[in-house]
Predict the structure.
Amino acid sequence: MKAIVIKEYGDISNLQEVELEMPVLAEDEVLVENYATSINPIDWKARLGYLKEMYPWKFPVVLGWDVAGVIVQVGNKVTNFKIGDKVFARPDIYADGSRGSYAEYVAVKEDKLALKPDEISFEDAAAVPLAGLTAFQVIVDRLRVKAGDKVLVQGGAGGVGLFAIQIAKHLGAYVATTASKQNHELLKSLGADEVIDYHETKIGDVLNNYDAVFDTVNAIDDGLAILQEKGRLVTIAGKPNEEQKASSKEVSDWWLQPNGKQLKELGNLIVEGKVKVVIDSLYPLTEKGVREAHQRSQEGHARGKLVIKVK
Ligand SMILES: NC(=O)c1ccc[n+]([C@@H]2O[C@H](COP(=O)([O-])OP(=O)(O)OC[C@H]3O[C@@H](n4cnc5c(N)ncnc54)[C@H](OP(=O)(O)O)[C@@H]3O)[C@@H](O)[C@H]2O)c1
């Protein structure tokens, strides 16, 4: 099968097209013919070797952890999915580094899968799992956002931020967010009550007494400063230090846990029109396409998701 791999850590020129053996399925896995995948910042961070200690992979490494496609093979112990099902998932990150989604076929454990609703295209579906599940888990489970809460989503125009704003609005929160000017209209159209241009205004000058902060940009002190005394902050972009953890406020970091059931819930919100998928740009699964997508992600101003069309 065709795949884009890295054979060592480094810049985008290390992303190379190769032919790989098809993945061999475990009993609890399905093989998905990949129609679309997406790029997340973890991809270029991994390419640069920032995750070396967490994942001591062997080369060549297949990056990419979003998949939308059709099941073509099922393991013996798979009970809830069958050949021909259209699915989407954030697959596990395997210890050997060979199982990413920049490939024509991806093996996925059954419990990470959700059926793709027919109303959602493969490209939109590929944009959802990693970023959408992160937003869902932080807003719903970790920050426990409820109707009437005042919530700040730092980095509202990013892949995660866009989902987070819409999920928090769906729960009935008042949502403030930060973004560059060119993204304000989009964020308001998706429900944000207040959009702050972080280039010009410090959030501490305009917001206070917030119940929850979702930090996607590693600005923990800024977030803590606007929280009410028992407010909650979750960061996905940094690590709270001892002083921050000692605050009277609830401060923690979060690492996404792939979860097929929650992905199904998110799919339902999209079908119901409560959450919209925003795609920044589409690329082909070629060396050039994936390199360009990495470049765009690494520049830090993607507006929504970068999607790779595989089939
Ligand atoms: N822990 C986890 O499980 C987990 C999961 C997913 C992501 N992450 C991490 O979370 C971060 C965000 O991920 P993502 O997928 O949303 O990234 P992304 O899509 O690449 O984010 C790009 C957005 O960030 C905004 N931005 C950049 N600097 C900003 C700042 N100082 N203030 C406000 N907005 C800023 C840009 O907005 P403008 O163009 O408007 O300036 C742009 O729209 C990354 O560091 C990623 O690695 C962690």
Notes: Residues 40-42, 130-131, 134, 154-155, 157-161, 178-180, 183, 198, 216-217, 236-237, 254-256, 297, 300-303 surround NAP (CB under 6 Å). The chain has ten helices and 16 strands. The chain has a mean pLDDT of 98.
